[in-house]
Design a protein that fits this description.
It comes from Apiospora rasikravindrae. Helix content is about 35%, strand content about 10%. The protein is of the alpha/beta class and about 400 residues long. Helix 1 packs across helix 2 (about 95-105), helix 11 (about 350-360) packs parallel to helix 13 and helix 12 (about 365-380) packs antiparallel against helix 13 (about 390-395).
């Protein structure tokens, strides 16, 4: 029988110490090459598995078929939002696609691949974490705890879920000392974000649902709770969120300080414009806050979005316009055949007609039109590699007004 070197007995007379067995190098199709207890291995932001780069300049997440559908529906709804804030049912985003779209925004420019990211709690069928209203002492938190943790945070080695487990259990190096996180190894996620869907009041309707967001900032090791509908019933929702994290928090969020961040600008905006928004508009505001946070990830100070109407409506700078461009490119660059069937590739007549019909901005939303046109010009017509095929995209998504 062959004796392996590390199985040999130490012999002090020969001066030969016992050799330790080598550390086993593991390569898994889903988790990538790593040594046990090594840093997380990321090829793309979760829940995406790869980054696609058809022309060498985009570096976008590569969605699978269900993710592609979620992004498509999210983008179509985002571009159709009316300007006055008075939304009807079709104008609201599907909850199931919010986290998928925001996680794709981590790769808004190629340089972000080597920077820190934000993770928005993702489940295949549901992105939002339900918050019960006024839970009593005997309330059963089992289902809520399962939603908060889900299989993505378990210790089971299933696809990239193991990477998330290793990510949130690893020590966090400050962005001051380590601003670049070279792919694929390294701890990438500074923010862990949970978008909440609060239980509507008894007799409440679809438009009465309020959304808020909890954000764990690993840079400061603090949870901040953002309530964009803070001008109404803020105290009751704050109590519900505190009860949620006290009883159903996953292991990495237990016993951490929580700070409430209320906003009043949506209420002030309604008073100023004499136009009443529905509480459901807080869903749009949470997406806007998520984009703002991701645009400021490299700042080491605690991230606090300003309480201004243009921030909560996604209209500051090119906030929602940049998100729309990134999602459009994510669909267009995907090499997944089922995503390609959506009809985004190439520049044929049928593709141009489809883009013009499906991804045309709401002509009544003048500010979104202006911002989207600016963002598309920067992304396509100012890029020598994309200019030749970018002008038709600009004209299809933001056609000149008659």
């Amino acid at each position: 029988m062959v004796t392996r070197p590390w199985e040999q007995t130490a012999d002090p007379a020969e001066g030969r110490p016992a050799r330790k067995p080598p550390r086993r190098l593991v390569y898994n199709y889903y988790t990538g090459p790593h040594l046990p207890n090594s840093p997380p291995y990321w090829e793309a932001p979760w829940p995406f598995r790869y980054v696609e780069d058809r022309d060498g300049t985009t570096r976008k997440a590569n969605p699978d078929a269900p993710q592609g559908v979620h992004i498509q529906l999210f983008l179509q709804t985002l571009l159709a939002i009316p300007p006055d804030g008075r939304l009807i049912t079709k104008d609201y985003l599907l909850d199931s696609g919010i986290s998928t779209a925001l996680n794709a925004y981590n790769l808004r420019i190629p340089e972000r691949e080597q920077r820190v990211w934000a993770y928005f709690h993702w489940r295949r069928a549901q992105s939002c974490l339900d918050v019960p209203a006024a839970p009593g002492p005997g309330f059963d938190w089992t289902n809520t705890a399962a939603q908060a943790s889900s299989s993505t945070l378990s210790q089971a080695i299933t696809r990239q879920s193991f990477q998330l487990y290793r990510e949130h259990t690893a020590p966090w190096p400050s962005v001051i000392n380590l601003p670049f996180r070279w792919v694929p190894n390294g701890r990438k996620y500074r923010l862990w974000c949970y978008i909440h869907r609060h239980e509507k009041p008894a007799g409440g309707k679809y438009y009465d649902i309020v959304y808020s967001m909890s954000v764990w900032d690993r840079e400061n090791d603090q949870i901040s709770w953002h309530d964009p509908w803070g001008h109404q019933n803020h105290a009751a929702r704050w109590a519900d969120v505190q009860a949620l994290w006290a009883n159903a928090a996953p292991g990495h969020l237990q016993n951490r300080p929580i700070v409430a961040v209320p906003y009043t600008s949506l209420g002030n905006l309604q008073t100023t414009t004499h136009r009443r928004m529905k509480p459901k508009f807080s869903q749009i505001a949470c997406v806007a806050l998520g984009v703002w946070l991701m645009n400021h990830l490299d700042e080491p100070a605690p991230l606090r979005p300003p309480d201004r109407g243009e921030v909560l409506t996604g209209m500051t700078g090119t906030q929602f316009a940049d998100l729309a461009v990134v999602l459009f490119q994510t669909l267009r660059e995907s090499n997944n055949q089922q995503v390609e069937d959506i009809g985004m590739h190439g520049s044929s007549h049928s593709t141009r007609q489809w883009v013009r019909q499906a991804y045309r901005v709401n002509n009544d939303n003048a500010r979104m039109r202006r911002q989207l046109r600016k963002a598309l010009k920067i992304k396509f017509t100012h890029n020598p590699n994309l200019r030749s095929r970018g002008q038709w995209i600009l004209d299809a998504m933001v056609p000149p007004l008659p």
